Amino acid sequence: MVGFPVPGTSFVGRRHELAxxxxxxxxxxxxxxxxxxxxxxxxxxxxxxxxxVRGFPxxxxxxxxxxxxxxxxxxxxxxxxxxxxxxxxxxxxxxxVAHLRERRLLLVLDNCEHVTDAxxxxxxxxxxxxxxxxxxxxxxxxxxxxxxxxxxxxxxxTPAPGDACSGAEFPALRLFADRAAAVVPGFEITDGNRAAVxxxxxxxxxxPLAIELAAVRMHxxxxxxxxxxxxxxxxxxxxxxxxxxxxxxxxxxxxxxxxDWSHDLCTPTEQLAWARLSVFPGSFDLGGxxxxxxxTFEGRSGEEGxxxxxxxxxxxxxxxxxxxxxxxxxxxxADTDCSHGEPDPAMTARASGAPVRAGGPADAxxxxxxxxxxxxxxxxxVLDAVIGLVEKSVLVREGGGAGSLRGGQAGxxxxxxxxxxxxxxxxxxxxxxALGADGDCRRRLCAHFVRxxxxxxxxxFGPDQPGTLAGLRAEHDNxxxxxxxxxxxxxxxxxxxxxVGSLWFYxxxxxxxxxxxxxxxxxxxxxxxxxxxxxxxxxWAAALIPLVRSRTNAVLLAxxxxxxxxxxxxxxxxxxxxxxxxxxxxxxxxxxAFHILSRVELATTLTFHGRPERAVPLCLEALTVCEAxxxxxxxxxxxxxxxxxxxxxxxxxxxxxSARRCLRLPYVTGEPHAVGGTLEILAVVTAARGDAxxxxxxxxxxxxxxxxxxxxxxxxxxQAHGPPGDTAYxxxxxxGYELSVPEALAYALGEPLSPRRTAPPLPDTGLTRRExxxxxxxxxxxxxxxxxxxxxxxxxxAEGHAERILAKLGFAARSQVAAWFSGLSR
Length: 826
Hints:
Structural class: mainly alpha
CATH class of the largest domain: Mainly Alpha
Distance between the termini: 30 Å
Helix content: 55-70%
């Protein structure tokens, strides 16, 4: 199972629903779990997938859609979850369909209700193209497709008031007891508390989320007190979860009551933080929290504090009648920071040496470690509020490590991230809108990520590229939210173009070219024809796509035309270009990235047009700069361009050595896309040297990588045949196709193929060579993460291999795999 979170709590009840879901999933290709929010659809879907995964050789894959607000991004989200790289540059939906056409897997789409039409279109296309894919969705509404089967997930059973019960026969009571025991160790349902627990669960209508929220309060209140307090609330409040309609079902009222209760137990500062942090659709760190909370946490005393507290509770305050009594840091003030063509006040203040107001809109998202950027009192207030929300189960703490952004720095490592459950986030957004602060918070979010992106762009040309990519990947949902705000809010498209342009390295290094085009095209249309640095930067970023794709098209050089009339090209001075693109003459990091990429682009063009002798010195100069700065990503393209130029000059040994130097880069060895492209170049060079068999092995290894990255498997199979009648080529290609990435790297760098590669498959295992390799690592005690690192594959791919091994062997646990492999070895 790939992408499914590891449950932190036990699964209670649902035996009937599980059995019914499995029967339906065996009989239909599309099953939708429907039901109200908080009823446990997502948890049930994960349990269903866990039980069904053995029937799917390619595993079960989760696609979380709660953070996807734009339906056109649904195919991107699916491709992301499946680990598909957009190398072909096609439409995202077509790429997903092509990837799934020959696979047998379970695709789980979670939280479809807000993008129902987009999900329906994708599911229809997938099911129409692939007979081996089944789809399980969770949604508050059906998708509306003809073959869709529905399973309504109802609340957990509770006893009627006054009924005698043991408690064990009612899953709602068992759930409360289990969650309460996590707060109060040793808690059990006894004769003394059974009636109160039964009343409590009945009042909450058996909704799992409401029961869990109530159980958290056991750290401060007894069961009887919980029951009495909830009874008071139900009598005093009739606020509904959905649109304030009196027609909403009672379960929505009780769930809203439970969330209201959690809100009231928060301090005013925690309530304000809950509202403002709901602007994050994905997880966030303390730096992001400081950015969106801004100056609203500082100096909150006296009248200002009373006003804020009244507003967050939705109550009027006398100060609102007096325009002069307004708070500082208002939305209007934030608007001036977003006006087109105006300088950033925070940047102006820094340049002049003037103090910058901590956390204000102009400085939203400033680095927490910057001099005077964020005051100590703000950082303390935000931290205290976040800790309080974690303790009250409003925020869920996620472990630190690579992928953390603290104070605007990605990949700092060791940072803790936080996320808010979708239902609680919706509640927070409601409170934020009641405050009239949703626009201000979204602007702060955008300002924060523009600043983060620009900081990382400036430092991208350096040694910490893997950490930067990991950090930004953790913020992907938030980046999308910022771009969506810029796209849908008048006057914000320049900021969106600025963000797209600054993140060029992120989109391209991840292979997310289609998403780069998605935002670029829409923001350009929104901005119109007005000339602006942001517009020029975004155009330049989109124009990089053909350059980086050229690595995978090196084989086309063999038939490329060489026009003799091409005029000599001189390398342009990149400084004027940097100024046009919004750079700074003293901005060395960004300037070097532009400079070296322009050299690579020019060298590639020269080689394609028959002037490789002019390309070689450009590449050598660029290579020197990359090595001096510890840079690897651009260096891999420089070495690829150098290899193709030397190949075109007939310098085959030098070309091969350039390709091998590329394969030795740590960045490349951890990036399958870069390995595949370089293996293709090396295959062309090797063929030119007359070693057709070795070239076929290298090309087979490259084609396996393309297949794993989501490319058309039939295309790789067609290329595997080689020239008509050449069976030797096909055999060599198949040997390469069976290589793991580390083995392919070792072979490309000169090591001979292991003898076992030419031996027939091991009898009676049913596993591929790669799966046997993964089984051996499982037997050695490695986790999926460690296996991914050892084999230089993604964690998702490692998880997929492990699930297929369990399915093929009929095992339920990794310990069984270890015992089986140990016996096989003997």
